Fold these 3 entries.
Entry 1:
Amino acid sequence: MTRPATELRLDKAQVFADLNYEPHEGQRVVHESRALRRVLACGVRWGKTRCAAMEGIAAALEPRATSIGWIVAPTYDLADRVYREIQAIIGMQLKHRLISMKEHDRRILLRNLAGGVSEIRAKSADNPVSLLGEGLDWLIVDEAARLRAHIWENHLAQRLIDRRGWALLISTPRGKGWYFDSFRRGQGKDTSYESWNAPSWQNPHLDRELIEAERARLPERVFMQEFGGQFIEGSGAVFRNVRECATGSWQQPNRGDSYYAGLDLAKVEDYTVLVIMNRRGEVCFVDRFHRLDWNLQIVRIKAALQRFDSPRLHVDSTGSGEPIYEALMREDIYATAYPFTAKSKTALVDHLSLLLERREIVLPRSELWPEGIDELEAFEYSVTEHGHVRSSAPSGQHDDCVMALGLAALLAKPPEGAGATLMPLRY
């Protein structure tokens, strides 16, 4: 006879041993915590993903009639990191408990230790409507520092109330937003919160010498955020002085002025963005749109350029941009192709960063161009799971305004001694 769920208790340490998981000391203290809100802020490769996945497995095996748990992140790609780890463990070691695994829904049904049904789902925060509905027994939030505050407050925390569920918030630190506030609560007297902070090198399975080698090629503030796991305001920001440069207004064409334009073309869900600057580096005009037929886009772009005396135009010609570039040329638009590669994109971003650092360009005020200012401030240095450094928009966010601005700036304010490697030309 099956014992009632109320008489069963989960021995988490034994479950981990049975699954051949030996947590290192930092992971062990997280697993032993009973706080309803647990905040884990650590450097890359510390073992946050593995730790969270094993917490999810233990929660799903907890003897109950039913249980529901979510893994949530700013995008599905990020949510998949913990979810795929859970999926692999179940597929290899708990297959006898698997009821169903629906790939399209990212949904697993598992038979728990009481014979009840536990549900595990991966969710993306980029569609907040999908986060409404049922109460949760547990919740894991990956890259929590990238999650917008209102998503946590209005869509996730509320899901835990009626079932008195727990949450594990894991992330590499990013500035000092709501996630940092949650971390600080875990360091204070609020017993419902507990938090931990550790650098990458506290993972005994990582080579400290390889980590130290990264210090030499990273800005110190970026290194201490990504590997040191420290909360540092603005440490990963690529562009400085954005607000200080955002003092301008939209301008009407001036016949005596010279203009330069940058065009970043839409890729599926992205936006097509056209930026026009004058020779003084002032952004005079921006057009941003998406989901328009290519022919309509060309008409709209051409009309805007003609208003400003048909300036020279830098065009992102990568992939689907190639035929659009050719079409613009057929319309007698003075266009220069700028194929995006890792090298050329880095050169463009570095040049734009230098111009903002020197305050040599003037952006429209934030209330006039909120999308552009937000993109510039969000653009960041980060370290991938494989240890590569990159500068990009945060996962799930756009960089179209940044790229279009950078393309225009290369023409309006060319770098000193710019050569073909920096400005690939093809007429």
Note: Confidence is low (pLDDT under 50) at residues 1-6, 419-427.
Entry 2:
Amino acid sequence: MLFSAKGDIMPREITADIERLFRRIDTRRDDLVKLTQDLIRFPTVNPPGDAYEACARFLGARLDARGARVDYVRGKGEPDDTDLHPRLNVVGRFEGGLPGPCVHFNGHIDVVEAGLGWTLPPFEGVVKDGRVYGRGACDMKGGIASAIIAMESLLDEGLLTRGAIEFSGTVDEESGGFGGVGHLARNGWFDKGRVDHVIIPEPLNPDRVCLGHRGVWWAEVEITGQIGHGAMPFLGVSAIRGMGDFLTLIEKELVPALETRRTRMPCVPEGARQATLNLNSIHGGQPEPFDGLPAPVVADRCRLVLDRRYLIEEPLEGVKGEIVALLDRVKAARAGLDYSVREIMTFAPTMTEPDAPVVAALDEWIDNLFGRPAEHVASPGTYDQKHITRFGAVRDCVAYGPGILDLAHQPDEWVGIEDMVLSTKVMAAATLTLLRRETSRA
């Protein structure tokens, strides 16, 4: 017998349907594993965006075979979209017979490079000890497979009687998502009149619901000085020394200040509950790579790329302003120095309310299947929720899926088969709960 998160017995009709749904998913275990393997075998490495089209069309063919309306949407004009590496996304929609809400599953098909340190082939989908191994296994091809099997199981049991279910396989999440979910959201695919609830099966652990993420401000700081002879550096103004002054202020003043700022968002791991700053790269003086004889000049420019993760409690203008204030002090202390700041990428923090409909539905079935309340978390880094809530204006959006967050982008990345089965059940049951709730689009 199944119980709600409040301990009440579920209505008989729902209970019978859910029990059938779960039995169906149990019979699809091998198919779930095979689909995960098939997806891993597409080496959709970003950059540059290899095998995007092949993977998108593979997913589209599967959705089409089950009766979905399938659209392929290319991110024309978006960063890195070329004829050699087209940013091709796929969207499939299944319609019920009666009006109702739409539940949308979104998964990114791109993965990071394999890198070094693998003991198993990264693009073969090796099954071993109850796990599927490969680049993207947990981030997030196992999640995509789970979402698709959840949708297909609902169809197999004839449970899509009202509303709609959608799936989108999108590109470029690992590089900002502009050609993927960003493009779809800006072009109406996540409008309120079309989509009501969104589940993104990112690997945040299968007993957690991820409500949102911290904000990010990427910027390039360039400090300029005056070129001079290296034998007479006093006749020039070293931009590298100016950058050193800036870094000293960061280490002595800004970093300690950031460590005192804490957020109400349930960020994981614990260190992400504070504001952070990472220095991505720095370069000044002679061009790199340097393998010849030195040039006797004073460096007249030095560039630094910084990655500032900011909290929902921090205003963006304040985040930028404290960097500029430090640069102003550096400029004032050394005659002949100047600076500029170029923004690279900015995304605001976002967090869905913990009592939102999609959260409540997932909470209920996590509690039932795992025997403990769902943990609400927020991601330390951004993911495609940023585009859905910002451009699509669908606030009822979360990340939920199989996989352990710490394994993402690591060598020998894997996803647990049992975790995928349980997550598939959670997603399928939560979808049915949302579809059968009387929800007005008004």
Note: Residues 137-156 form the longest helix (20 residues).
Entry 3:
Amino acid sequence: MTGEPAREYTLEDFESVAEVVHRVARNTPLESSRHLAEILGVSKVYLKCENLQRTGAYKLRGAYYRLSQLTPEEKARGVVAASAGNHAQGVAYAARELGVKATIFMPLGVALPKLQATKRYGADVVLEGGGFDDTLAAALAFVEKTGAIFISPFDHESIILGQGTVALEMLDAAPEIETIVVPIGGGGLASGMASAAKLVAAREGRTIRVVGVQSENTASFAPSIAAGEPVTIETKPTIADGIAVARPGDLTFGLVRDNVDEIVTVSDDDIARAIVVLLERTKLVVEPAGAAGVAAILAGKVTASGVTATILSGGNIDPLLLQRVIGHGLAASSRYLKLRILLPDVPGQLVRTASIVASKNANVIEVIHTRHATDLPISDVELELHIETRGVEHGQQVVGALRDAGYTVRVGQRY
């Protein structure tokens, strides 16, 4: 890979930071998933549950360590952050614990639970800008005006070191881990975890493989690594707003380049499926960005060597979004199907098709019956059935039974 070597840390750096971070951060559980292990074909897959961390995400670690290193004069000036969620809550909580005034700029459309949580931790919240770029610009203008200290969400040495403590906990609890899968947005978490994990492995005379995961709609690291420097990409909307970053950090770029062995991408469908699997199989509520590692495993994007671990990096998901994501995930898994069936416009056809679906133990949840579509033959109607199934194979059985009965069926997985 091209570019200058990244800043090198020592294992002692991370261990000393961990002592500070653990003043407030929990050593979160490391759960195992037999289901994911079977899919991946390894003996064990671990889940580091930072969704159960104070403030609901790993961000508290870096934020607390960053604020703890401020001088008394800097603390007196107060701190400023721009965030739509986890970083805001981490900075607000850390500031409260350290007696520092915090001002958090959040976009106008920020989810209500995140807004309320940030205020509850004692920060002054300013709603500014329809998108994050506008919010960030407002925060930086505030810094220029007041002299407050800006707290970057990922591109600062103290932030990187704080996030790296996650890997120390994982490897202390499960020294046999050989592959770590980590979500990547701006690169703070991946930089810290990959650096720390490689140092632990080197001390033990072995290697650890680190796989980074980005949303395919905001995957800035691959083109940046190809260019040899951080580049800004044009992003597309994604449900994984926690890793939706258009440009790697200047510090994190080199650390990810040098310590992350492979970077893969996942779709929103992959992420939605992962959230549903985590709910059903592990009873854990995880936000979209936090499910990226599991999404990569389920989508077959990870080639593991031995025992594997991933981090559920956050659990702060708006219940309204969760409701939509669950529906999206079920549809992506063919657990919800939308069938368009061409029927002759004669009595009894609706009953007949419903009977066929019922005979296959599928459940009809919505029916739309129309004869007004312009592309329909004049003697036909279209029946749109939304049904619940047990998965792809069951859905195919239902569709096959309808076609065997002589119906023309079109299958669409989206509502």
Note: Residues 157-173 form the longest helix (17 residues).
